């Protein structure tokens, strides 16, 4: 009897141990499944069709806001970059001359239509590509998407800049030529009389200029300056998104997420990202503007070498003042519109 009782006790103990092991195994599997589910949820957030669509629309809203806030400063920048001898007296003189000669609509806001197309196309593609590139960098660095540091986001911005260059280049070319059309006409050998230039100036608009480029240079004429655009966009967006994320990191109050920092802090972070962008790549932007406005085909290296040889290194920074002056409010408006549009669309 004692042996039978002991055997039964051992058997019951074995069953209890087996049951306990099975429960532990089930719990471990459930935890692993939850972790996998979270990772898959993060993946779908980065590359899902809905989220790409939200990024596209949010980038579009940001691009529109950026253009209307920053277009006058951009016009002054392009004029100072491409015609430094005419506007050697500085930013204020260039602004007043443009306002006096052409007014607000045809002067300070010249090229707004192609600028809208350029910014909407660039920012919609940029932010959509940025979301996908964030996921790719997260996988490559074995990091959860929500725990990416500013360097990871900067790398994602660097990669996204390549894709946005192809949508930006054609509209940027038309915009730059419209912004500098008066100076181009006055410096052409065939136009010697200011009145003749004035008559011709009034007949040139974005669509007229687009047809002119297509007829004279063909489809690939719209991609003049593509190499310099890529050389500007990729490193530029490394500093753009890196600067934005670093600023968000330091301005996020304890106990809050980066998405909860509010409108003012978001604009400040966006402005700092814009300042980082332009400070880092401005010489490349000067070269791009010269190539796109000029009637002579040039390589990036040749154009930069010519500028340094004839005008000095300082010429590569012509227009930096108005650029930094406009970029803070313009980029702040870009990120503010983007973040708020994204929040609204995510609640639908």
UniProtKB/TrEMBL annotation:
One Gene Ontology term, aspect cellular component: membrane
Keyword tags: Membrane, Repeat, Transmembrane, Transmembrane helix, Transport
Keyword ATP-binding in annotation: no
Alphabetized PROSITE patterns for the sequence: SOLCAR
GO function terms (MF aspect): L-ornithine transmembrane transporter activity
Entry keyword annotation includes Transmembrane: yes
InterPro entries (alphabetical): MCP_transmembrane (IPR018108), Mitochondrial_Carrier (IPR050567)
Protein family according to the UniProt entry: Belongs to the mitochondrial carrier (TC 2.A.29) family.
Name recorded for this polypeptide: Mitochondrial ornithine transporter 1
Organism: Allacma fusca
Lineage start: Eukaryota, Metazoa, Ecdysozoa, Arthropoda, Hexapoda
């Amino acid at each position: 009897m004692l042996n039978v009782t002991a055997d039964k006790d051992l058997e019951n103990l074995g069953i209890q141990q087996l049951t306990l092991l099975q429960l532990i195994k089930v719990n471990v599997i459930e935890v692993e499944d939850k972790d996998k589910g979270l990772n898959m949820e993060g993946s779908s957030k980065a590359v899902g069709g809905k989220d790409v669509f939200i990024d596209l629309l949010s980038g579009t809203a940001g691009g529109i806001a950026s253009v209307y806030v920053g277009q006058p400063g951009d016009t002054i920048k392009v004029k100072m970059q491409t015609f430094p001898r005419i506007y050697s007296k500085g930013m204020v003189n260039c602004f007043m001359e443009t306002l006096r000669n052409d007014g607000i609509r045809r002067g300070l806001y010249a090229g707004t239509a192609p600028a809208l197309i350029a910014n909407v196309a660039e920012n919609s593609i940029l932010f959509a590509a940025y979301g996908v590139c964030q996921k790719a960098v997260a996988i490559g660095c074995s990091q959860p998407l929500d725990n990416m540091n500013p360097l990871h986001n900067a790398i994602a911005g660097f990669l996204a800049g390549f894709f946005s260059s192809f949508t930006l280049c054609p509209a940027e070319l038309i915009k730059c030529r419209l912004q500098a059309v008066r100076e181009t006409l006055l410096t052409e050998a065939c136009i010697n009389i200011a009145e003749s230039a004035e008559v011709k100036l009034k007949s040139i608009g974005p669509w007229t200029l687009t047809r002119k480029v297509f007829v004279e240079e063909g489809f690939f004429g719209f991609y003049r300056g593509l190499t310099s655009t890529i050389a500007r966009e990729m490193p530029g967006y490394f500093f753009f998104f890196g600067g934005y994320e670093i600023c968000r990191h330091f301005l996020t109050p304890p106990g809050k997420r980066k998405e909860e920092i509010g409108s003012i802090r978001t604009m400040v972070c966006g402005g700092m990202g814009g300042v980082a962008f332009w400070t880092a790549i401005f010489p490349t932007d000067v070269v791009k503007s010269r190539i796109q406005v000029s009637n002579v085909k040039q390589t990036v290296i040749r154009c930069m070498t010519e500028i340094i040889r004839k005008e000095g290194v300082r010429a590569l920074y012509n227009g930096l003042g108005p650029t930094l002056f406009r970029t803070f409010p313009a980029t702040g408006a870009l990120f503010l519109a983007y973040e708020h549009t994204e929040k609204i669309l995510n609640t639908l």
